[in-house]
Design a protein that fits this description.
alpha/beta, Double Stranded RNA Binding Domain, TIM Barrel, 3 domains, nine-stranded mixed beta sheet, five-stranded mixed beta sheet, binds iron/sulfur cluster
């Protein structure tokens, strides 16, 4: 627990966000001055609780972090903190330095807590082209390490090249969610239901989904469609007949022939058959994702993936034989029981397979994940991602001829790390860039799907969420459609 005493809430969000990057999964409780001394008295000397005291006075801020055992760090800064526009970064740097001094830790992303660091770099690139100047500005502003600044600059450059000279903001992309998986992974925080328990509802789910898709196709008939992304869950968890029906429906409703990219996630190797890949290829799917997460059987068993390493190899070989243009693979760093040696050997196998894209996730322990619920049991096994692991990934990707092309950060990643997509040149996943850089509307259908409307002129984003529960989604499909009708801006 962090007990927080502050005489103003001017920077409440920043105080909490930066505190949590140092003290992950810690609760913050705001207390009054009177409670402050009472609480201090009650805390035993060996308590792991912390006290954080921030005092704002005339153009000046004082801060103190104190632990239950009496260790204390103080710091202060002169700045006109009421002038948010010009001094927000000064305040954040002050907070970061206070916690850094107290913990003795330096975080790779410094004080940056936002999930889209490349957006900042993209904006700066409008005025500045020199890579060294851009990286130095990034390090000085956000106190990041130079590798992160360089990574961010490389990704932003790649995105700018890919997005240049095409009016994506005048088009939209479609997301279709299939929330079924063979089993539920330990770390899962997506909308996902195991096939064995939900098989009897798949037909009704698809019927509801088709209604929602039909609404979108009609509402957006005048607008060009850039890309289609079928995700989940695991779309290939559908049986062959259902997968065929889904592909047929997409073709009936949307101009598949003219889209720039058509992706289907085939994430779980235990959901793939030759027939399913044939159905996808014949439907014009160009990009599939096969996700090993790790090439270590004992980890797969531990995290409940219920497939073998050999099935990953077979699924990849089958995808190549089927002739997909782009094969992506996902891996996760920081899985329970894994250290850098596990990552090294996983990467060695992936190097031999030579996917076109590699997406690297740092394990995030979110509220909904089973891993969080069962954290007590797995706590000693979760060592988390290290910078060394991500540097190794970067090196191996470069050896495979890949460059980083999209990136985002999530809250609750131990160590405050990032997720990165790498690609060989020319095979980048366009949908991933569009959704991260918020360049166009992403209209999402299915349980738990989140639609994003982008208003570039106003620098504004609106979202419409569908319910996650499958039964509710089926029963309330008209309401889901109404939510979209309310949000649609096509007629504006
Ligand atoms: S495959 Fe993905 S969506 Fe399915 S249970 Fe595992 S983590 Fe969740």
């Amino acid at each position: 627990m962090i007990y927080l005493l502050q005489n103003s809430r001017e920077y409440d969000y920043d105080v909490r966000a930066i505190a949590l990057t140092f003290f992950e999964r810690t609760k913050i409780k705001e207390i009054s001055e009177r409670q402050w001394s009472e609480t201090m008295m009650e805390i035993l000397p060996d308590s792991s609780d912390l006290f954080l005291h921030i005092t704002y006075s005339d153009k000046h801020i004082d801060g103190e972090v104190r632990s239950g055992d009496g260790k204390s760090t103080k710091s202060s800064v002169d700045c006109d903190y009421l002038d948010h526009e010009h001094h927000r970064n000064d305040v954040s740097r002050f907070l970061y330095r206070l916690f850094s001094k107290f913990t003795g830790r330096i975080l790779p992303w410094g004080m940056l807590t936002g999930i889209r660091p490349t957006k900042i770099m993209m904006n700066w690139m409008e005025e500045e082209k020199d890579p060294d100047t851009l990286e130095k500005r990034f390090v000085d502003t956000y106190l990041t390490d130079i590798q992160k600044a360089s990574l961010c600059r490389r990704v932003a450059e790649r995105e700018r090249e890919i997005l240049a000279d095409y009016p994506y903001e005048k088009e939209y992309s479609l997301y279709v969610g299939i929330p079924f998986c063979p089993t539920t992974c330990l770390y899962c925080s997506f909308t996902s239901f195991p096939v064995s328990r939900f098989r009897d509802r798949m037909g009704a789910y698809l019927e509801a989904l088709y209604k929602e898709m039909a609404y979108v196709a009609d509402a957006y008939r005048e607008k060009p469609l850039t890309s289609i992304y079928v995700g989940g869950g695991t779309p290939t968890a559908l049986d062959e007949r259902s997968l065929h029906s889904l592909m047929d429906k997409i073709h009936q409703l949307f101009p598949v022939e003219s889209v720039r990219e058509f992706t289907v996630e085939a994430g779980r190797p235990d959901s793939i058959t030759e027939e399913k890949f044939r159905i996808l290829r014949e439907a014009g799917v160009g990009r599939v994702s096969i996700n090993p997460q790790t090439m270590h059987q004992e980890t797969l068993d531990l995290i409940g993936r219920n497939h073998t390493v050999e099935q990953t190899r077979e699924a990849f070989a089958l995808a190549r034989r089927t002739g997909f243009d782009v094969i992506n693979m996902d891996i996760i760093t920081g899985l329970p029981g894994e250290d850098i040696n596990h990552i090294r050997s996983t990467l060695r196998e992936i190097f031999d397979m030579k996917p076109d894209n590699l997406t690297v996730h740092s394990l995030a322990i979110k509220r909904a994940a089973n891993l969080n619920i069962e954290m007590e049991k797995y706590h000693s096994l979760v060592k988390g991602t290290t910078n060394e692991m991500l540097r190794l990934v970067d090196q191996v990707c470069m050896d495979m001829g890949m460059e980083p092309y999209y990136m985002y950060r999530q809250k609750n990643i131990p160590g405050n790390f990032e997720n990165i997509g790498y690609s060989v040149p020319g095979k980048e996943g366009l949908y991933n860039i569009l959704i991260m850089e918020e360049k166009q509307d992403i209209i999402a259908c299915g349980a738990g799907a989140s639609t994003k409307y982008v208003f570039p002129a106003e620098n504004r984003i609106e979202r419409t969420e569908n319910v996650k529960n499958i039964d509710h989604y089926i029963q309330r499909i008209e309401e889901m459609i109404q939510r979209k009708a309310f949000g649609d801006k096509i007629w504006q």
